[in-house]
Fold:
Amino acid sequence: MARTMQTETPISTPRHVAIIMDGNGRWAKARGLPRTAGHKAGVERVREAVRTAAEAKIDYLTLFAFSSENWRRPEQEVSDLMGLLRFFIRKDLAELHRENVRVKVIGCRQSIQPDIRALLVDAEQRTRENTGITLVIAFNYGARDELVRAVRQIAEAVQSGKLEPESIDEAALSAHIDTAGIPDPDVVIRTSGEQRLSNFLLWQAAYSEFVFPSCLWPDFDRAAFHEALAEYARRDRRFGAVSAPDLAVCS
Ligand code: FPP
Structure:
């Protein structure tokens, strides 16, 4: 069982797909190119992935664009990644908007350049009324940092008397993290064959399926995306319960 909502979308289509776009550097290295060439090729796949997800009637696509740990990369690579994000928002926002895509950004807004912060805020504001797919860009995002920020907000609410400690439950924490209002990812895809979560959506991925295609992100084309969705559709999600056929045998 992957989806219970009654829409025209097939039951096995995930509502929310989250992707760790890994392998840009290795893709470039294999071609004797600088790492930035891999990230540039990766941006092309970002465009294709948004289109593919929208066509597949996925409601939310979350892309891990820059982690809070990526600042540790060489200064030039960080600067190139910032440049690519700027370029993507400036060049693609109008088209995303035309295609009814709603943009949402998660991650820590502090410590990012003011012009990038402004671009991200503008992208969110201009597309906030759109009703198509929601593209969630995880930028300067780290799940532990997100949880720390949420706990701090909750502690402040308790300290100011707005919240009783007894009323802190899973829903309260979910309401304070960056993805508040967004359903948990049904599937997390990580390209390049690496099988780690790397501080991505630690809370939200508690019951997600994981798919690890071996191809590098710049090779993750439409067919590879559909293959990952097909792999997800073959999974039997139980959320801690037992599957329906097993239940029938038990009773
Ligand atoms: C991981 O590959 C990829 C990244 C750290 C950056 C991903 C960014 C993009 C695809 C472009 C910008 C995104 C948007 C939304 C415009 P890696 O460099 O770690 O690859 P490696 O493991 O092969 O070295």
